[in-house]
Amino acid sequence: MQALAITSLSAADVAKQYEHIRELGKGTYGKVDLVAHRTQGTKMALKFVTKNKTKLKSFLREYSLTGSLSCSPFIIKVLDVLFETEDSYVFGQEYAPAGDLFDIIPPQVGLPEEMVKRCMQQLGLALDFMHSKNLVHRDVKPENVLLFDRECRRIKLADFGMTRRVGCRVKRVSGTIPYTAPEVCRASRAEGFLVTTSLDVWAFGVLVFCMLTGNFPWEAALPADAFYEEFRRWQKAGCPVGTYPSQWRRFTDDALRMFQRLLAAEPEKRCGVKDVFCFVKYELVSELRRRASCRAKRGERSTPLKRSVLSDPLSPREESGQHQSPGRDKNKSQMVMATAIEICV
Ligand SMILES: Nc1ncnc2c1ncn2[C@@H]1O[C@H](COP(=O)(O)OP(=O)(O)OP(=O)(O)O)[C@@H](O)[C@H]1O
Ligand SMILES: [Mg+2]
């Protein structure tokens, strides 16, 4: 069993060790900076997680989970850099120089199909690796997919802050995003829901739709959402050929078969993530249908992509309760040990 040590550094210590280059991104729980180690010259991404939004235990869980998955070529690598400052917990990750997937999806247009297929394969392998270890990412979205080149020849899944083990009961975070599965949208906040790999499969299906179209299929998988309701009615009718919901008319029949399996309403009927691999050999978007659907769509509403935040930024990542780091010492130069027993999911 591994023990983790977290060192305390003052802002001045951090500036002495790392040259700040620029901010790479801001998430719900903090920010990520590009820095260079002053003596070694190594560039890295430092993820700062704000202490008032995350417990030490959750932060260490994210760090150790990312580390345990880093052996996959499709998952971001953590570095041996772990410290806390006055207001944040911080860990180092390899730097993805081409940014995240959200940034390169042309709104309302989508990515070229070949690029989407490369992403489907690499992300499918990342998720399949996690699922084989009984872990569920729970926050699959383009903002959490990092790029090493703009053609998506090398991409990696990142942000394991929400990752949990299959079978865990978790509380529903407030709000839903388009990637949230319908059973989670429906779950009561009090009872919560059981974590299953089918949650990632749903989010992966929505992500593939977003990459191919530059739109969301819906804002939330709830009956009150007209786009979702139209899709659901079509599913319930047995997905009849020729009467496709408006947002789905551009896809080939093969792509529609794939989406039916990824986005099955009942979680137990959803396919495994690697079942999409057999669909990458087919054409997914039909140029003819796309043009027809664009003509039909004029004047019709669509749901343009925007960056999505899974949880209420005002509430902590974990269940409510005041943050009190176990074993934390007020003395700044103190090393704090947290054993893996505290951080296992
Ligand atoms: N290693 C990295 N290399 C390059 N950019 C990165 C890296 N890590 C994160 N980023 C950028 O920073 C953003 C936020 O990072 P991350 O998703 O880890 O934070 P978060 O606070 O957990 O986000 P969320 O809002 O999804 O909970 C990413 O969407 C990405 O744009
Ligand atoms: Mg994120």
UniProtKB/TrEMBL annotation:
The keyword Nucleotide-binding applies. Residues 303-333 are annotated as: Disordered. Keywords: ATP-binding, Cytoplasm, Kinase, Nucleotide-binding, Serine/threonine-protein kinase, Transferase. It catalyses: L-threonyl-[protein] + ATP = O-phospho-L-threonyl-[protein] + ADP + H(+); L-seryl-[protein] + ATP = O-phospho-L-seryl-[protein] + ADP + H(+). Its main location: cytoplasm. It comes from the Eukaryota. Residues 315-332 have a biased composition (Basic and acidic residues). GO terms for molecular function: ATP binding; protein serine/threonine kinase activity. It is found in: Cytoplasm. Its EC number is 2.7.11.1. Residues 18-285 form the Protein kinase domain. The keyword Cytoplasm applies. GO terms for cellular component: cytoplasm. This is Serine/threonine-protein kinase SBK1.
